[in-house]
Structures are given as structure tokens and as C-alpha cells.
Design goal:
four-way junction DNA binding; five-stranded mixed β-barrel; Helicase, Ruva Protein, domain 3; OB fold (Dihydrolipoamide Acetyltransferase, E2P); 3 domains; alpha+beta; about 200 residues; 9 helices; about 50% helix; single chain; about 20% strand; DNA polymerase, domain 1
Length: about 200
Amino acid sequence: MYDYLSGKLVKKQATEVVLDVNGVGYGLKVSLSTAEQLPEEGAQVQLKTYLHVREDVLQLYGFANEDEREIFKALISISGVGPKLAQTILSGMTPAKLLAAIRNKDEKQLHAISGVGKKTAQRLIVELKDKSVVIHSGMEQTAESPSVAFGALENEAMMALISLGYRRAQAEKAIAKVMAKGDHPLTTEELIKEALKTI
């Protein structure tokens, strides 16, 4: 129904944005990967879209590029993976890192993402293994640093740091530094506070 939307970015949060397209405000759910690539509020942007239709809800999802949208569509085709979990997965890893984990059959890394149980991680590897070849062929080949897969606590802290204006790479690095100390904070607030000290 909608392939993309172009308009003014009037609201930007870690997992949701609002685009003003000719006077109509469209709310779109986005991953952290997409959110951190967006400019500041007030800028003109274009997002690829996917309209998820349920009996009682129409929800638009936005993506920075075609590759992320294709991976999202592949994820929700898997039994037990809905749009919300698909966005969580894409927030826990960049598309390139996710495909690398699937190619390497890195079940542990996938399982570390909030909401991804052992069986779901296994299904991701089995069902996306062949699809990832097609998806990956259209992705830019870039050298990336080893991925750090975060759990729910770390992801929540990372979203908070991104919403404060820090880039995803900065947030990931800061949180990883805190977690590497071994003296893990008990709450999201403590983790954010400690991470801010390292930035």
C-alpha cells in the first residue's frame, strides 16, 4: 500500500517517529538502527515503509533502507516472530551483524537479544539461512566491529542514550565498557549513569 513516505521529521524517539507529509502526520515504529541514522527533527527525510494489518490495528513501520525492510519482512514470516520482536531484533543488531550471526549459526548471540528464546534463535538460523543469501546480495559490504548482543537491560539503556542524542555506536561502546567491568548495575538507571561517565 505504501512503499515509502517523504516528509518533515517532526518527532524523533528511539523507537518511533512522526513524519509530516503534506500536512498529515504519520506515526511509524522504527528500529534503533533506523533511528540513529535519522537527522534532527525538522529535517526532510524519506523512509521505506511496511504496513502491518491486524483485525483491529493498522501500524506503519519505517526503515532507513530497503535492506532493513526486506530483513524485517523475512523475520515476520517466521513462526513466533511478530513485528514487535522483529523490530527488537533489528534494534539489538544492525542488519549486517544479524546476517553474519545467521551465516555463522551463532545461536548464542541471537539468544542474547531480548525476547529471543533458544527455539526462536534456532528457527531464525534455519529459516533465514537461505533467505539471507538473497537479502545480503543487495547490502553494502562493510567491515564491522564484532557484535555485542545486548539483553533487555542493555537495550533499554541503549535506547535511552540514543534518545539523549548519542549515536548508536557510542551508546553500544559505553554500555559494553560498563558491562565488561563485571560489576553489573542492577537497574537501567544505574547502567545509563555509569555509561554516561564513559562517554
